[in-house]
Amino acid sequence: MFRVSQKTEYALRAMVELALRRGEDHPVPARALAEAQGIPLRFLEQQLSTLHKAGMVESFRGAGGGCRLARDPSQIRVADVVDAMEGSLYPMYCLNEHDHTCFQDGRCGLQELWGDVHLAVRQVFERTTIADLAARHRRLGSEAPVFRPQDLLRSGPSS
Fold first, then answer.
1. How far apart are CA 21 and CA 37, in angstroms?
2. pLDDT of res. 102
3. pLDDT band at residue 159 using 50, 70 and 90 as cut-offs
4. Which residues contact 121 (CB under 8 A, 6 or more apart)?
5. Secondary structure class of 68 (helix, strand, coil)
6. In whole angstroms, how large is the CA radius of gyration of the chain?
7. What is the pLDDT, as a whole number, of residue 155?
8. What is the Cα–Cα distance from 147 to 115, expressed in whole angstroms?
9. Strands 66-69 and 57-60
10. Which has the closest alpha carbon to 82: 117, 32, 47, 119?
């Protein structure tokens, strides 16, 4: 139903990897990030450029160059990364305040439902930091079992 683009997923993976390597005394080469997270290097370079322009990643050229987080990972929210990569992200076009093409704009129960979905997702993005994701990555990476994606989804309250 709700899908985040691959560029945003790759950007988040790169940010997590940079957070995991924060204690290193040198910048992390893009190639090392790509290999650690299974991201095509050419695609990753585009994401790193966008993250650099958004002030979340510092880049260093030349021998020993690479990148690192520009701020503490606890100060970078998932919402910051999503906004940098996607701009305004809505589950339905009718929620965009500049799009009034729907004939029922503002008078539709479905629009209200999608507004609730947007708000719930946005709240998760805003309260989750890159440090939180790195901690999850460390925890899940140390456990032996491999989970199916559906095993990681939280289900609602049981009836």
1. 13
2. 59
3. very low
4. 2, 91
5. strand
6. 18
7. 61
8. 31
9. antiparallel
10. 47
Residue 49 has pLDDT above 80, yes or no: yes
Backbone phi, psi, residue 12, to 5°: -65, -40
Q: What is the mean pLDDT of residues 38-58?
A: 95
| Number of C-beta neighbours around residue 44 at 10 A | 22
Q: Are 129 and 74 in contact (CB under 8 A)?
A: yes
- The encoded tokens of residue 55 equal 């002030």
How far apart (Å, rounded) are the C-alpha atoms in residues 93 and 100?
9
pLDDT, tens only, 86-130: 886 655 555 556 555 655 655 666 777 777 888 898 899 999 999
What's the first-to-final CA gap in the chain, in angstroms? Answer: 23
Contacts of residue 96, defined as CB under 8 A and 6 or more positions apart, other chains included, come to 88, 90
Q: Which candidate, 148, 84, 90, places its Cα nearest to that of 120?
A: 90
DSSP 20-63: HTTT-SSPBPHHHHHHHHT--HHHHHHHHHHHHHTTSEEEE-ST
Between 98 and 50, residue with greater pLDDT: 50
Residue 72 structure tokens: 């503490």
